[in-house]
Amino acid sequence: MTKTIYKILGKRGRITIPFEIRRELGFAYNDVVSFETDGDTVLVKREKICDGCKAIPTPEPKASSAALKELLDDLTPDELRTALIHLSVRWAEMQASDNNERQ
User: Fold this and answer.
1) Distances (CA, A) of 71 to 47, 75, 80, 83, 92
2) pLDDT digits 0-9 by tens, 71-103
3) What pLDDT does residue 39 have?
4) What's the pLDDT band for 36 if we cut at 50, 70, 90?
C-alpha cells in the first residue's frame, strides 16, 4: 500500500526519512543509500556495498539534541504523548532515587 508523508526541505537541503519508513524498510545507522532521479521524482534506495557488511557491527551513534529533535519531529501526537508520559515517570523515579541517596 502506498502512503504519502510530507516533509519540508531544510535550509541546508536536508530531509529526514521518517522513522516509520526507516523502521518498515529496515534502514539502519550507517546504511548507504543512493538517489535516482526521473523528472521530478527521486527514488531513494538502500545499497548493499559488500556481502559481509552486516556482519561488521556498527557503533551506535551518540545521542545529540539534533538527533533527538529529529526523532521527536517524526512522532505522531499520540506517540509524543506516550513519550512524554514515559519520560515524566522516569524523571520522577530518578528524582526520588537521588533524594533517597542523599538521605
Assistant:
1) 23, 7, 10, 11, 23
2) 888 888 888 888 888 889 888 888 887 777 766
3) 93
4) very high
Domain 1-59 sits in CATH at 2.10.260.10
C-alpha cell at 90: 522516569
Grid cell, residue 29, equals 545507522
**Amino acid (one-letter) located at 62:** K
Residues counted in the chain: 103
Q: How far apart are CA 34 and CA 48, in angstroms?
A: 10
Q: How far apart are CA 89 and CA 15, in angstroms?
A: 32
Q: For the chain, which residues make up each domain, given as ranges?
A: 1-59, 62-103
